[in-house]
Design goal:
Layout: H1 15-34, H2 39-50, H3 54-68, H4 73-90, H5 93-109, H6 113-129, H7 133-149, H8 153-170, H9 173-194, H10 197-216, H11 220-237, H12 240-257, H13 260-276, H14 280-296, H15 300-316, H16 320-333, H17 340-356, H18 363-475, H19 481-512, E1 521-524, H20 525-535, H21 537-542, E2 546-549, E3 556-559, H22 561-578, E4 584-591, E5 596-601, H23 608-613, H24 634-644, E6 648-654, E7 658-664
Helix pairs in contact: 2-3, 3-4, 3-5, 4-5, 5-6, 5-7, 6-7, 7-8, 8-9, 9-10, 10-11, 11-12, 12-13, 13-14, 13-15, 14-15, 15-16, 16-17, 16-18, 18-19, 22-24
């Protein structure tokens, strides 16, 4: 956004015209504010509330500031500062500079030059750091405009020259046209003050360059502006022929543009030229054309402006009636434009008119009738203006509704896209968590497997080493028959332990196969225990031990039968191993509903340190009461099986009193859909 110097630097307007132009802008800004056009800022504000992305918030706050800067400068400054907060946080330097530019332009409009300078210098510093050539063009041009507004035209010219460097570097044609225009205005104003030919030539050169660029861009409105300024230079320098030629060219361009405001301005300039040349007929012709256009657009300001010219020309022609008539029209349309000098002219015209037309004896009555007519005309004009304004508001309303629907549809699509992205993100997150859990389980399984193989390699090495040594001794006939029998007993015991270990491993290996899944079924626990008593008859008889089954005959539990059988068998085997000759082993049910089983013995027991390590991944192999050996792997596999069927294993033991293993099946918590 580029803020030009004051309007009289770019356009030729008399002082009162500039004031009326300001009133016109204020009127239309109020009309536009009254229209239901809040959908855009409201939509931006809603988007700011809804989004969690700080970079999007920075852009939205910047867009809001650009929306408000022309009519609500304080709001524009507030939203630009909000954009700066997020831009600084995220390092969005280009957005930061743009927000400072909005603050600078807003303060310039408010005539707060120091604040405007501070903001634009801040924007320029950032743009220099990021080497933003177009941005540096904009900042230098705006700084020049501030200096021009505050009367420091030499500083303004230096800033325009800096902007020109970046304009040429980037070949930004629109920016170059603005810079050339402003430099032309600068040298034109200097020439008016010092009458130096150098400033006149520079003003002419810059304005010609601006005109050439606008011609190449086919910017007719911009061409009219440059041509008007050039015509002023020619006329003021005495080259009236070229000056009027330029004005006629501007008039031709305006005809194609249908720009009635500019057409009135050019017609008035041509009229002024002919009036200065004392060609009052042509002057009146152009002034009346301008007045007719002013009446057609119902512009009170333009009617006042053109009627004043006609009155002045008529006075020069000694047509006092016409001069008075248009003077009344001028006053009726805008009393505010009356000055002390014009009041004197009116009084002079009235005296002259009365002296020539003495038959008008009742001047007061005529004047009252004239004012009544003009009042009625003014009411009609106001009514037409209101109707036009209502129609314009209706058109704008329809346009805003259409834009609102487009924005709403775009917002809906954006929200759907965001929902889809969030859904995909959740799916990816869920898959990631599942993959992490799988990796963790796999890692644990690998550690368990490695430890298992370590134990196997260690415990199988001993029995096979003993067998190999015995065979070697036998081959060399180094053993007597009695020694061989003793060695065979040891080998038999070692191989039995190794065989038991391999049997346990085979059972465990089957459970690790993909096809071997946990099958939760309801079955009779008493029968399962009886089967195990038969299995251990030989071992029990050898140590004169008794295995007592206290499970009710009708007791049923829910579990994987094969895995539970493995757990019970290994615990009973452990109890036989560590219970002395003549000891007893009991199997009972503690909680019939929840399936809580206890296996207790009257064996040697363990201290707390051994109990804490009993299910660990370390080899806890210990000789039994009758010298039995084992691998220590059975209980480790029992714990793995218990985890697979959602069961819990607990151990209670006292040295020399015995050990109790508690198996909690948690039957009460098993969902019905998991039971086969």
């Amino acid at each position: 956004m580029l803020c030009h110097p004051t309007s009289n630097l770019l356009f030729y307007y008399p002082e009162k015209k500039k004031n009326m132009f300001t009133v016109f802008l204020i009127f239309w800004s109020l009309v536009l504010q009254a229209l239901p056009q809040q959908s855009l800022p409201d939509s931006l504000k809603n988007s700011i509330v809804e989004t969690e992305n700080d970079s999007i918030k920075a852009v939205l706050f910047l867009d809001l500031s650009k929306h408000y800067y022309s009519f609500e400068q304080d709001s524009a400054i507030y939203f630009a500062n909000q954009s700066i907060i997020y831009s600084e946080k995220l390092g969005l330097k280009k957005h930061h500079a743009s927000a400072l530019n909005v603050i600078g332009v807003s303060n310039l409009i408010k005539s707060e030059y120091e604040s405007a300078l501070k903001a634009h210098f801040g924007a320029l510093t950032i743009r220099e750091n990021i080497d933003d050539s177009v941005g540096m063009l904009e900042s230098n041009l705006n700084l020049g405009n501030i200096y021009y507004r505050s009367g420091e035209i030499e500083k303004a010219e230096k800033m325009y020259q800096k902007a020109l460097v970046f304009g040429l570097k980037t070949n930004n044609q629109r920016g170059l046209a603005l810079i050339y225009n402003n430099l032309g205005s600068y040298h034109r104003d200097k020439w008016r003050g010092n009458s130096k030919g150098e400033d006149f030539d520079l003003a002419m050169d810059y304005l010609q360059k601006a005109l050439e660029i606008k011609e190449s861009m086919k910017d007719d409105r911009g061409m009219i502006n440059s041509i008007n300024q050039l015509s002023e230079l020619y006329l003021e320098s005495g080259d009236s022929k070229t000056g009027i030629k330029m004005l006629n060219r501007a008039l031709e361009l305006i005809e194609n543009q249908n720009d009635v405001e500019s057409k009135i301005s050019v017609l008035c300039q041509i009229s002024d030229f002919h009036r200065a040349d004392k060609n009052y007929k042509k002057a009146m012709d152009y002034a009346e054309q301008a007045f007719a256009i002013a009446q057609s657009i119902k512009s009170r300001f333009q009617i006042t402006h053109t009627a004043g010219r006609i009155s002045t020309i008529a006075l020069a022609q000694n047509d006092f009636k016409k001069a008075y008539e248009y003077l009344v029209i001028q006053k009726t349309n805008d009393d505010a434009f009356f000055s002390e000098n014009r009041q004197k002219v009116r009084e002079e015209l009235t005296i002259q008119y009365e002296s020539e037309k003495k038959e008008l004896e009742n001047q007061g009555l005529i004047q009252e009738q004239e004012f009544s007519r003009l009042s009625l005309q003014r009411k009609n004009e106001l009514l037409i203006i209101i109707i036009i304004a209502v129609l314009l508001m209706a058109v704008l309303l329809l346009g805003q509704i259409k834009n609102y629907k487009k924005l709403k549809f775009a917002h809906h699509k954006l929200r759907k896209s965001l929902e889809l992205v969030k859904k995909q993100h959740l799916q990816i997150q869920s898959q990631t968590e599942h993959l992490n859990e799988t990796n963790l389980a796999l890692s644990k399984a690998n550690i368990f497997r490695d430890k298992l193989f370590s134990i196997i390699s260690h415990d199988l090495r001993g029995p096979f080493s003993n067998i190999h040594s015995t065979i070697e001794l036998w081959n060399f006939e180094m053993l007597s028959h009695q020694e061989l029998e003793e060695m065979m007993k040891l080998i038999s015991r070692d191989t039995n332990a190794a065989s038991l270990m391999l049997e346990n491993l085979l059972v465990w290996a089957r459970t690790q196969m993909g096809s071997n899944v946990v099958q939760m079924k309801e079955f009779n626990l008493n029968k399962l225990i009886e089967t195990n008593i038969e299995f251990f008859n030989v071992q029990l008889a050898r140590k004169n031990q008794e295995l007592v089954n206290k499970i009710p005959i009708d007791q049923r539990v829910i579990s994987d039968k094969d895995r539970l059988n493995f757990i019970i068998r290994n615990i009973v085997m452990n109890a036989i191993k560590f219970t002395p000759v003549g000891g007893k082993i009991y199997i009972e049910i503690l909680d019939r509903n929840d399936g809580e089983i206890i296996i207790r013995d009257t064996g040697m027991g363990m201290n707390e340190s051994k109990v804490a390590k009993i299910f660990g991944n370390k080899n806890q192999s210990t000789k039994g009461t009758d010298g039995e050996t084992g691998t220590g792997i059975g209980l480790m596999l029992c714990k793995d099986f218990a985890d697979s069927i959602n069961a819990e294993l607990e151990v209670e033991s006292t040295v020399n009193l015995g050990t109790s293993f508690i198996i909690k099946l948690n039957n009460a918590n098993i969902p019905i859909d998991q039971i086969s």
